[in-house]
Amino acid sequence: MKAELKRKVVDQLIEIVEEGGSFQAGFSSLAGLPTNAVTGNKYTGFNAFWLSMLGCTKVATMKQWATIGYTCEGLGRKDRNVGIPITLGFSAYDKEERPDGTTAKVYKGKRFSSATVYRAEDVKSFEDGSPYPMDTEGMVDETVSDAEIEAFIANYYRVSGVKVTRNATGGAYYRPSTDTVNMPLPEQFNSTDTSTATENMYSTELHEIGHSTGHKSRLNRLTLTNTKGYAFEELIAEITAALLCVELGITSEARDDHGHYIASWLMALGNDVDYVFKAAAEAQKAVDFILATQTQSETEEAA
After folding, report:
1. Are residues 104 and 176 in the same domain?
2. What pLDDT digit, counting tens, does each position of 172-205 carry?
3. Which of 94, 125, 156 is the last residue of a domain?
4. What one-character DSSP code corresponds to residue 132?
5. Is residue 159 one of the residues assigned to a domain?
6. What is the pLDDT of residues 110-136, one digit of tens each?
7. 207: domain range?
8. For a tag on the chain, would you pick the N or C end, based on fewer CB atoms within 10 A?
9. pTM
10. Distances (CA, A) of 239 to 124, 170, 182, 244, 273
């Protein structure tokens, strides 16, 4: 990627950040708050926050999944830790003896225990191994597939070894522990005030691909796990997506959505715009790595 093009994109992003505006997600989940797939109850409090952060929409414990005929795919494998710990609150009681010799149940307060839940996309049927079905009825696919961009993304996954899953339940995320990108279905992407559904779909996938370049087997960038480290990594991934969107012709310039997303994470970094320049340097390394996989793919085909 030419230096002047990178500079142009970064300058546009900073201009958008300084102008302000709010970020609009470019895809919709099948549920609002994370929900227990068996009981139908919505999670609240910390569990709702925690499960939402992990991109969960429907989960249940292994025992609950078993009651409706499902087991966790890869359960027991050391290389696939898919269980998610949550907290369970319950009321504690004790028995106290009364003067007349009888006993009474006395409330002792709220207590907490833990449980492990599993995503709907990580379970399969006991009977035939089929995935848990998700209802996407009523969703309309507004995206337009581009053969060249699809080939670009497929080449990256093949050469880099990153796995990709596509389902309606998990949202968009990159999971370093399994080196997997998860993407919503095309029909879940919608247009925003500044972007088409197609632009949102491809930029979202390029964002998650950007995260995957930080894996320890690639650029080894995913080492900072505190709030600032997480926010900085989000800047890197979003600038990577913005640069690639222009490089691939998905958009002709940095979109407002990119700038608004970056602005939302800059808040965790004290609104210091210098972080954009620092993240841009790391994003360029990610872009170079991704583009190199395309060259490698062409070399393999020629051989």
Report:
1. no
2. 888 888 999 989 889 888 887 778 889 989 999 9
3. 125
4. P
5. yes
6. 777 888 899 887 888 989 888 887 766
7. 3-29+141-302
8. C
9. 0.66
10. 36, 23, 19, 8, 13
